[in-house]
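REQUEST ID: PR-0412
SUBMITTED BY: lab tech R.K.
PRIORITY: routine
TASK: structure prediction, single protein chain
INPUT:
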Amino acid sequence: MNKWIRNTLIILVVALVSSGLGIYVARMDFFMEKPKEVDTSTIANEMKKIAELATYEYTYTDVVFVKADKKFNGITLPLTKTSFLAKYDGYIKAGVNLQDAEIEVNEELNEITIKVGKSVILENVVDTDSIEVLDEKSSLFNKLETQEKIEEINANKKKMEEKIIAGGFLDKADENTRLLLESTFKMAGFDKVNVVFK
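STATUS: complete
OUTPUT:
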């Protein structure tokens, strides 16, 4: 297969597949004034123009409960008990940063090796429109500020991230990355695709 045609196909396939998997495209140059020889560094450069490749997403619904009061000498003061109970939806995305991708092509064997970093958390987002207050009690002398509620939600968000990472979330993202890159470059005409996490 002509080098320019094959490598242009690689770029197109990566772009098409990535659009369905939440890849954030920084810039992609599809239109060239004239055909030119595209070597290994060109493939790597085109991949690096795609900033992040999101390969795994976890969606969840969580509940946050905040309870506070004021004490004096260990005794709860009257009219200071306050609480806040709400539920919300969120999602966490993981994937790889293609800025550090390395490409090696063996023309004789029609083989490509792609070296990428291991998956990391790309996004941890709470859908603010989904927040539903289930119960809220304010006291005359102790009101929960909006910032306190936000801080508690952010703390819960971090706990959720740590929980799913402990459950193998990033390992699954690595596997999805490997499968995606293998299928993408085989579609582009390579007989063998090696994905190496560095």
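NOTES: The CA atoms of residues 111 and 192 lie 5 Å apart.
REVIEWED BY: pending
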